Amino acid sequence: MKKKWAALILTLVLAMTVVLAGCSSKKEPKEALEASAVNAMKMTSYEMKSKVTIKDLQVTSASADNAAASQVMSMLKNAELTIDGVYQNDPQQTEMTLGINLKGDMSMSFNIPMVMTQDKLYVKVPSIPMLPLPEDVVGKFLVLDMKELAEQQGTSFNPDMMNPEKTKKLAGEIMNTLFTEYDGKKYFKDVAVKDANLPDGVDAKQVVQFYVTNDNVKEAADILVNKALPKILDIISKEEYREMLGVNQEDIDDMKKDLNSTDSKDEISKGLNDLKNYLKVNQFEVNTAINKDNFPAYQDAVMNVEMNDPETKDNMKLSLQATSQYSKINEKQTFSIGIPKEADVITMEQLQEKMGATAY
């Protein structure tokens, strides 16, 4: 009797240990990121907020007009690109607003709302400074019928090209390949949730960082080119992805053959060895916040690099930050723009006519 009770208690303790481990313990950083990437393929609807900010951009060249380049760099410094959107799989519909905010001496800001269905793309014509557009065009939605455009170019339209589900599936396979090739101890680590500077509304159970430093950038590039890229080409070789991307097997085979050629390998090897002479990685980090449902709810990427070509004397410094936040995952979505009504739509032919009339 005592043995039976002891066995029962031991069984209960083991069962509770397994349950608690599954509920509360954190996975190894690389394993957690792999699991969240796979889980992301199950996202059938969501709200999204993304932003890219160019913190610094400096370009100098011995052969170019540096004064003109400096003017352009001034416009782009602290420039922001934002995308706020909503996506649902069934019925397939995506709407987003692209925001462009340029600063400096020639500052300007404008938004471009867009709506995408299974076969059409609607783009709202914005009012852009220095680009005069007819008043009766601004505010209209330019409709692009993908099937008609394909026929005009002598090709057939493949709906899969605008299918976010297949795009996510392809991205998932590629990400899984990349994760497999990079060592978990060298390139991945946990970041304490309290130290991750997560925005309000992001409830993360774990934050994982993928990072590349100046010490391992050569190895990271070598892994990407010589190990990951051939496998990624194998993924793209699958019929469903070839058709979706509109590429043929012959082109993929040529790329693989070129990668495997002796001349190409020698050139790649020389380029990787020379990397230390012209590339300096001050910071390259991608933090991914994983929520309780194992979805990647937030990502923050920071890149700060310098490139200096000793032969041409061309130099560049680039510092940028990119963030993406996902919310209301797999919930019912609300579309604020909706499918534009016929009265608010203009075709490409009508736009060209309007622009032609304006020119005269």
Summarize the structure.
The protein is α+β, with helices and mostly antiparallel strands and 360 residues long. Helices cover 40% and strands 30% of the residues. Strand 3 and strand 4 form a beta hairpin.
Rg, Å, rounded = 25 Å
State mean pLDDT (0 to 100 scale): 84
Arrangement of strands in the largest sheet = 7-8-9-10-11-1-2-3-4-5-6-12
Count structural domains.
Answer: 1
Oligomeric composition of the shown chains: single chain
List keywords for this structure.
360 residues; alpha+beta; 11 helices; 40% helix; disordered N terminus; signal; Lipoprotein
Description:
The chain has 360 residues and is of the alpha+beta class. It has one domain (27-359). It has eleven helices and twelve strands. Strands 7-8-9-10-11-1-2-3-4-5-6-12 form a twelve-stranded mixed β-sheet. A hairpin with a 6-residue loop joins strand 10 and strand 11. Helix 7 runs antiparallel to helix 9 and helix 7 (217-236) runs antiparallel to helix 10 (262-278). The longest helix has 23 residues, at 2-24. The chain is globular, with a radius of gyration of 25 Å. This is Lipoprotein. Residues 1-21 form the signal peptide. Keywords: Signal.
What does the secondary structure layout of this molecule look like, with pairings?
Blueprint: H1 2-24, H2 29-40, E1 45-60, H3 66-76, E2 80-88, E3 93-102, E4 108-116, E5 120-124, E6 141-145, H4 146-152, H5 164-181, H6 184-187, E7 188-191, E8 204-211, H7 217-236, H8 239-245, H9 249-260, H10 262-278, E9 279-291, E10 296-308, E11 315-327, E12 345-346, H11 348-359
Parallel strand pairs: 6-12
Antiparallel strand pairs: 1-2, 1-11, 2-3, 3-4, 4-5, 5-6, 7-8, 8-9, 9-10, 10-11
